[in-house]
Design brief:
Order of helices and strands: HEEHEEEEEHEEHEEEHEHHEEEEEE
Number of helices: 7
Number of strands: 19
Strand content: 25-35%
Low-confidence stretches: none
CATH topology of one domain: Gyrase A, domain 2
Helix content: 10-25%
Mean pLDDT: 97
Largest sheet: 6 strands, mixed
CATH superfamily of one domain: Probable tRNA modification gtpase trme, domain 1
Length: 362
């Protein structure tokens, strides 16, 4: 049996009668009141997520001479202090080892936030490629809460003051929270106005209790988070992207800066020249049935790909999903059949995001 790790909030989740399940090597809350109810609360009010399972690394040193600048598909040194940037850590074949966000803390200091299931491997890969500087894994000492929803700004200002209220999207600031230095970032994974808060793991329970004392806030689990992220078309590592998937196949080339060096660049350039063998597509199902991971995708009687993510979307009232298909099928409006054993449903290739009514830019 796998020995699951737990966040500092595990006891609080159990006290709230959360349904717990393994995720990325951690015992995590999947739902409390219910996935649909938690999803709607996030779209309409403010939902609080335990994201302490994510990994955080700290780099201190010169980005160029230390090798950090050549690690990712984006430039670290061009990120202004106080801002963050999303992109990828690739292998030599251009496959995605992880998708991540780098926070520029100071001129010679950056925090790298990675996925839970890949954190240990990410740390080893990054460390092996660095040529200087100080690199440390601060995950165990770092807690992370995400508050997301149109009322999240009002909730946080009531609890913590007005200091961060004017933060634009993908910017962050350091501030005192409960007597400890913390980072408040205007980022998230739901398509709604929201904030990610990094603070000492020893303080995360106190902040959780403080925020939940506001009647506008309810806890939400990973089930609601998955529906929320898919409605706005965000990829999930391990499902929609992995080490066998390149950013070009996944339609994420916008997060690749070909004007700089990075591991895997040569493979991506060759893939551009030779052409893609598959592409990620978004599709809407004709009806309320949910497509599932690994269901087959058919076109004109042929199997042309497979589903990587699928849910019932409460906001659209039907099934939605992502998957990989032959490039000739990845055209908006193409009719598909999603099938598995005795299950069959009609679908149509569509544009992302599925849902456009969120408060993200509010």
């Amino acid at each position: 049996m796998e020995q699951l790790r737990t966040t500092p909030l595990c006891g609080r989740h159990e006290a709230l009668n959360a349904l717990m399940a393994p995720f990325g090597g951690w015992n995590m809350p999947i739902q409390y009141e219910g996935i649909i109810a938690e999803h709607r609360w996030c779209r309409e009010q403010a939902a609080l997520f335990d994201i302490c399972h994510m990994g955080e690394f700290l780099y201190q040193g010169d980005f160029d001479s230390g090798g950090l600048e050549d690690l990712f598909t984006f430039s670290v040194k061009s990120i202004p202090v106080g801002r963050s940037r999303y992109g990828f850590l690739l292998n030599e074949q251009g496959g995605i080892i992880d998708d991540l966000i780098v926070f520029r803390l100071a001129e010679t200091e950056a925090m790298i936030v990675v996925n839970a299931a890949t954190a240990d491997n990410d740390f080893n890969v990054i460390r092996s490629r660095l040529t200087g500087g100080q690199f440390s894994n601060i995950s165990d000492d770092t807690g992370k809460l995400d508050i997301q929803g149109p009322l999240s700004r009002a909730v946080l200002t009531a609890a913590l003051g007005e200091g961060f209220a004017a933060l634009p999207y993908f910017r962050f600031m350091s501030m005192d929270i409960l007597g400890s230095e913390a980072i408040v970032s205007r980022t998230g994974y739901t398509g709604e106005l929201g904030y990610e808060i990094f603070l000492p793991a020893a303080k995360v329970g106190e902040l959780w209790d403080l925020l939940l004392s506001d009647g506008r806030v309810k806890p939400a689990g990973l089930g609601a988070r998955d529906v929320l992220r898919l409605e706005v078309g965000y990829s999930l590592y391990g499902s929609d992207i992995d080490e066998t998937t390149t950013p070009l196949e996944a339609g994420l080339e916008g997060f690749v800066d070909f004007g700089k060096e990075f591991v895997g660049k040569g493979a991506l350039l060759r893939q551009q020249e030779q052409g893609l063998m598959r592409r990620k597509v978004a599709f809407e199902v004709d009806g309320r049935r949910s497509p599932r991971h690994h269901y087959e995708i058919g076109f004109s009687g042929e199997t042309v790909g497979s589903v990587t993510s699928g849910v019932f979307s409460p906001m659209l009232g039907g099934g939605i999903g992502l998957g990989f298909v032959r490039p000739d099928v990845a055209v908006i409006g193409t009719p598909l059949t999603i099938f598995h054993e005795r299950v069959s449903m009609k679908a149509t290739v569509c544009e992302l995001p599925f849902y456009r009514g969120g408060s993200l830019r509010s």
